[in-house]
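Could you help me review a protein record that somebody else here produced? My question to you is simply how this chain folds and whether the tokens agree. Thanks in advance; the entry in question is below:
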Amino acid sequence: MNPKNIERSLNVGFSGGEKKKNEILQLLVLNPKLAILDETDSGLDVDAIKTVSKGIEMFKTNENAVLIITHNTKILHSLKVDYVHVLVNGKIVTTGGEELAREIEENGYSKYKR
């Protein structure tokens, strides 16, 4: 984060990417047992995704959990994930590891939407 941002009110005048980075900074400071990150990668460029991913990896330990909700697998390239779940109409239709994310990236979700 830019040190000049400390003089701003919280999230006032921040770009979307700055807000996402600030959320990860708050995550690291507050250190909750469970973090639910909904579309954390939405609207981020490649460099910002790497920065956010690095923050998530810094947070993740055996003492906490991170649930990342995303429609795009790009953020998963920078993270070591334990599980990938696919939800369709509010139900988990399949579960796997990073190989499931790669398969969806290559082939899409159509196989799971039946």
In short: The radius of gyration is 16 Å.
